[in-house]
Known about the structure:
Distance between the termini: 56 Å
Helix content: 40-55%
Amino acid sequence: MADRAAFEAEVRRTPAQDLHRLLARRSLPAEAEREDDAIVARLEAGDFTGARRRPLRPRLRRGPGRRP
């Protein structure tokens, strides 16, 4: 019951445009949050093992006969 009251209080103080983030975060199991915290701590410590740079998208060339 206390968890529901805490959830309702959090919903009331969350701006409408951020409710989807709150609901997504609250729908995950506690293990997922601990896992995310561990990953963030590792990255903050400078350990980027397993992280990869997102490939850049090729630039579209605009010219005669090409769509914008």
